# Entry
Amino acid sequence: MKEVRRFFKVQTQTIWAPAVTTLLYLMIFTLALGGGANGAGREVLGVNFASFVAPGLIAMGMINNSFANSSFSMLGGKIQGTIVDYLMPPISTGELLLALTGAAVTRAVLVGIAVAGAMLLWPGVSLAMAHPWAVVWFGLMGAILLALIGVLTSIWAEKFDHNAAVTNFVITPLSMLSGTFYVIDNLAPAFQAVSRLNPIFYVISGFRFGFLGRSDIGSSNMAVLQGAIGLGVLNLALGAGVYFVLRSGWKLKN
# Structure
């Protein structure tokens, strides 16, 4: 509740601003690459460009804001001298990690809803869901993945420059090169192989599959299911790693 109240106090910046920014992305890329305001001049995966790019932008907004929320939590405490608010309460390490991750996922879901609402204002965008389970699963897995990375960043960072470095040199490149604006079939084979090593690619493509019923993860629904399972396993492994780092008190208790 503390973490949720924190980002709600500045909800114009944390929830509504991402919706406006993402709508600008949609407008710019649709006009530049789609061939018209509604993307009707170009089709990707059997739909107009606006409907193709919209789910990817929603997922990108969700994961970026999930990371932004969790990566600030304990870093802000360390810088402001309020880290004891996280370390002293009589809760377990698992409960603390669950709270930090849960707040980030809450913000991600709210941003996703706000972004989706903004998308519907753009002509030609259809957000009809072909596979609702994929929308929910890949959306949550992506938000949890970036929330856990954010918590780890928050533990490691000692100043805001460290946080910004991870954002600018790791998170942003991975999200921008994840197939949000294109299908990886357009890339050279070597770059396709690199894209498939990027977990955010599976988040974006799986989330898009939930809306369009098509994906560039693979030619069959089984490939999407394998991607879904892979993200779940990755989150479990990453969650265990962050748990042990948080429990050790590294860069928090010394």
About this structure: The two ends are 27 Å apart (CA to CA). The chain has ten helices and two strands. The beta strands are 43-44, 47-48. Residues 2-248 form one domain.
